[in-house]
Amino acid sequence: MDYKLLKTDLRRSNRRILKIEDYINSKSDREGFLVRKIDDIKGRGVFTTKPIEKGEFLFEYRGNLTTVDPGFNEYAFEFLWNSRKCWIDASNDDKSLGRLVNDDENDSNSIVKRIMVGGLPHLCFYAKRTISEGEEVTFTYFKGEYDQFPWRLKVSTIYFRIC
Ligand SMILES: C[S@@+](CC[C@H](N)C(=O)[O-])C[C@H]1O[C@@H](n2cnc3c(N)ncnc32)[C@H](O)[C@@H]1O
């Protein structure tokens, strides 16, 4: 057994485990993504610059944690923590990637998990499946009313016409 190699492997895997907390604590995003304007309606989106494996950590939905309802705010992410409604308010443009992930109702490639770091909840995007190089990172915001998501209304109108 090559113990030197084993030690290096362990160090590498420990680094991988620590990485997510490191990104959260240093308020930074990992490399492998770029932001691109898609069009005037959708605005900007996040795209991969290399393939991503299923289950990989992508980046945090970074913003201010609050228990005060921010009202209509397209950058507020609502979730439950200890049975209480909370929001990550990402309306401040801090150049982070999470706040720029667009909605895909039916075929999104990421999910969001709540993880605890430093005793506080953090929302993190993970790959739901393999994501190819150059693909847009998308998330299903939630199953809401169509008037909350006017772009979905547009898509379903086309769908009904085709049928
Ligand atoms: C959290 S922001 C996402 C980033 C946004 N595209 C930007 O450039 O700042 C949410 C907003 O993006 C737009 N958006 C998200 N998903 C969309 C989609 N599938 N089609 C059209 N617009 C979308 C809507 O304006 C929505 O209110």
TrEMBL record:
GO molecular function: histone H4K20 methyltransferase activity
Location of the SET domain: 31-142
GO biological process: regulation of DNA damage response, signal transduction by p53 class mediator; regulation of transcription by RNA polymerase II
Stored InterPro entries: KMT5A, SET_dom, SET_dom_sf
GO cellular component: nucleus; polytene chromosome
SUPFAM superfamilies given in the database record: SET domain
Name the record gives this protein: SET domain-containing protein
Organism: Mytilus edulis (Blue mussel)
